[in-house]
Structures are given as C-alpha cells and as structure tokens.
Amino acid sequence: MAAGLNASYMASTNFSMVNFSGESTRKALLMHRKPFTVSAQQADTQDYSLKVEEKEEETVQKEEEKQPKVMKSPRPVEPQTNVKSKNMGIEFGSEWLSSTTRHVRIYAAYIDPETCAFDQTQTDKLTLILDPTDEFVWTEETCNQVYSYFQELIDHYEGADLTEYTLRLIGSDIEHYIRKMLYRGEIQYNMNARVLNFSMGKPRVGFAYNDDQIPEEYL
Amino acid sequence: MQGRLSAWLVKHGLSHRSLGFDYQGTETLQIKPQDWYSIAVILYVYGYNYLRSQCAYDVAPGGLLASVYHLTRIEYGVDQPEEVCIKVFVSRKNPRIPSVFWVWKSVDFQERESYDMLGISYENHPRLKRILMPESWIGWPLRKDYIAPNFYEIQDAH
C-alpha cells in the first residue's frame, strides 16, 4: 500500500486511527497524549458496543513493540459530548468509509455510544461495532481481546491509505480472529439470538478445537 | 496462408503479423502496441466501422497481456460481412496500449473493464477507472498472478 499519498494517512509511527484529514488535524491530535478510556458499554450490557480510539504518544508505542507477546492495550478515545450527526463534506466527495460484515462493523467516524450520533467528519477515528446482532455471548474479557486485536491491526496498517479496501482487510482479520476464538471455545453462540443460523459453523457441544485442529485457512 | 486484410496491409506497407484464422475462419492479426492507433484509424477508413467486441486476457503466468478487438465491416446488402480479429500483446511490466475510444466509441466500457481486470492502461481513454471492482481495490483480479485477499465471507451459515 502506498504510504501517504495525498495526506491520506499518517507518516509517523503511531496512531490508532487511520488519518484521513490533513496535516493540521494530525498535529492537533498528536497533542492528546494520555490514553483514553473506552467510550462505550460492553456488548453484553448493551445492544452494541463501541470502541473508539485515538492517538497516543510515540514512546508508548515503541515500548509496546518491544513486548510483542503482551496483548496490545486498546487506546480508546475520550468520550465526547454534544456530538452531532454530520456527513462528510462535499470536498471529500461525501465519501462513506466503512467495512461491514455480520460481526464487525468499522466506520471511519465517531459514533456517540449513547445517542448514536454519527459524526463522519472525524475521519481520524475508527469505530468498531462488535456483533450488533448478538450472535455470540460476549464477556468483558473477550470483548477486550477483540478490541486489542483491533488496536494491533490498526497499528499494523498504519501508513496505508484510508480506503474501503484497507478497512475491509482489517474487518476481515477481526472476523477471522472471532472465528478462531469460537473454535477455541472462548466465545459461544448466543442461543437467544434473533437469527440462529450459526454463521461461523455449526456449534459443537463438549469440546473445543485445539490450535492444530483449526483448519489452516481460519488461522 | 495469408488473409485478405493481411495482404492489403502488406500492400500498403503496414507492419503486422498474421496469426492465421480462428475456428470460424476469421482472420487474426497481431499488431504492435505502438502501431495500433494509426492502424486502427486506417482500418476504420478501410471500412471496419463496427467494433463487435473488445476483451483482454492474460496469456501466461509471467508472460504477456493481450487485448483483443473484433472488427466488422457493416454495409447494406451484405449477408457475410468482413470480419477481422486484432490482438495487441503488451508486457505486464508496463502495459500501455493506445485506446481506440476515439475511433470506435463503443470500446469505452470494455476498455475500462479490461483495465479493471488486467490493469492494461489504455492511453487517451477519457475516463479510465475501475468499473466492476471498488475504486479502492488493489491488484488486477484476472491476472494469473493475482492472489485474492483473505476477506471474510459467510460460508458456513445454515
């Protein structure tokens, strides 16, 4: 992926959110240096959960890279107040950037967790809505696993163009990760879900796959 | 064995290579990319006023890309119109072929599709951009060395 054609992405090492807007915005965001809290409820208490993240200081990032075994801690953005639904300006072609599959919806926007206001002008943030149809039973821990994997992917794809293609790569990787969690028995199908079609394979009772039994294409 | 058009082109000193005849007996010619635009204009003047189809394919892994044009000469009172098939081969490193949009307008979307699927860039095409795949797509899906990204799709749903 071409790095930084037309200001579409970050050049510096670290960001959590792909950055679409111009240089000035990027610098403004670099001012935020402290890690933020998750701005939304978890999936098991609410219909859907959000994780919105933002940039962090570069040194923190470097430290994280030294210990790859440790799960990357998500760096959510701070909750915003008085968010209004806004579309992208006409100068961006009113582009709508998202990757939506059944369990993973990624939008290049800020979505308010309570009011669901959808601010598409904040394209320096990505919002992940995890499993909106409640196909799986999520706990706080498994949610955080997915979030940290999301963070890891975003750091990995840093420098790539912010396009649907990149978002779809990220979204697909998260879907594969969720399937792996399911095969390992870390999450279960929600039997009270509205649609029970077992979209990641039929449920198995009493055993979970070991790592070497998971078909290779799902790893 | 030389076809009619090939003989005519030889008579006028136009460089080409005869590839014989296809299964329907249509004459097939190979033309170099740098000659293609001028020969297209000459063929139009000769009488090939109808471009029946344009397509492209990947000849071999690591080999050339081909852009194929089927031309027909439509006239009144003719039930067996003259036809010819032109193949233009181009290297996959720098696949550039002059667009014949300004000769046969109907090639517009077909050249766009060839661009989208095989990455052949048609020079002087007025709006050469992807037509089937999303505009942000990376790679040329019908090339033999294309590797499909591991996108998630629902395959196991019941």
TrEMBL record, chain A:
It is a peripheral membrane protein. Belongs to the NDH complex subunit M family. Keywords: Membrane, NAD, NADP, Plastoquinone, Quinone, Translocase. Part of the chloroplast NDH complex, composed of a mixture of chloroplast and nucleus encoded subunits. Component of the NDH subcomplex A, at least composed of ndhH, ndhI, ndhJ, ndhK, ndhL, ndhM, ndhN and ndhO. It is found in: Plastid, Chloroplast thylakoid membrane. It catalyses: a plastoquinone + NADPH + (n+1) H(+)(in) = a plastoquinol + NADP(+) + n H(+)(out); a plastoquinone + NADH + (n+1) H(+)(in) = a plastoquinol + NAD(+) + n H(+)(out). GO terms for molecular function: oxidoreductase activity, acting on NAD(P)H, quinone or similar compound as acceptor; quinone binding. The lineage of its organism: Eukaryota, Viridiplantae, Streptophyta, Embryophyta, Tracheophyta. This is NAD(P)H-quinone oxidoreductase subunit M, chloroplastic. Residues 53-68 have a biased composition (Basic and acidic residues). GO terms for cellular component: chloroplast thylakoid membrane. Residues 53-82 are annotated as: Disordered. The keyword Membrane applies. NDH shuttles electrons from NAD(P)H:plastoquinone, via FMN and iron-sulfur (Fe-S) centers, to quinones in the photosynthetic chain and possibly in a chloroplast respiratory chain. The immediate electron acceptor for the enzyme in this species is believed to be plastoquinone. Couples the redox reaction to proton translocation, and thus conserves the redox energy in a proton gradient.
From TrEMBL, chain B:
The keyword Translocase applies. One of its GO terms (cellular component) is chloroplast thylakoid membrane. Residues 30-148 form the NADH:ubiquinone oxidoreductase 30kDa subunit domain. It catalyses: a ubiquinone + NADH + 5 H(+)(in) = a ubiquinol + NAD(+) + 4 H(+)(out); a plastoquinone + NADPH + (n+1) H(+)(in) = a plastoquinol + NADP(+) + n H(+)(out); a plastoquinone + NADH + (n+1) H(+)(in) = a plastoquinol + NAD(+) + n H(+)(out). GO terms for biological process: photosynthesis, light reaction. GO terms for molecular function: NADH dehydrogenase (ubiquinone) activity; oxidoreductase activity, acting on NAD(P)H, quinone or similar compound as acceptor; quinone binding. Its main location: mitochondrion. Keywords: Chloroplast, Membrane, NAD, NADP, Plastid, Plastoquinone, Quinone, Thylakoid, Translocase, Transport. It is a peripheral membrane protein. InterPro entries: NADH_DH_suC, NADH_quin_OxRdtase_su_C/D-like, NADH_UbQ_OxRdtase_30kDa_su, NADH_UbQ_OxRdtase_CS. It is found in: Mitochondrion inner membrane; Plastid, Chloroplast thylakoid membrane. Its EC number is 7.1.1.-. The keyword Membrane applies. HAMAP family: NDH1_NuoC (MF_01357). NDH is composed of at least 16 different subunits, 5 of which are encoded in the nucleus. Belongs to the complex I 30 kDa subunit family. NDH shuttles electrons from NAD(P)H:plastoquinone, via FMN and iron-sulfur (Fe-S) centers, to quinones in the photosynthetic chain and possibly in a chloroplast respiratory chain. The immediate electron acceptor for the enzyme in this species is believed to be plastoquinone. Couples the redox reaction to proton translocation, and thus conserves the redox energy in a proton gradient. Core subunit of the mitochondrial membrane respiratory chain NADH dehydrogenase (Complex I) that is believed to belong to the minimal assembly required for catalysis. Complex I functions in the transfer of electrons from NADH to the respiratory chain. The immediate electron acceptor for the enzyme is believed to be ubiquinone. This is NAD(P)H-quinone oxidoreductase subunit J, chloroplastic. It comes from Hedyotis ovata.
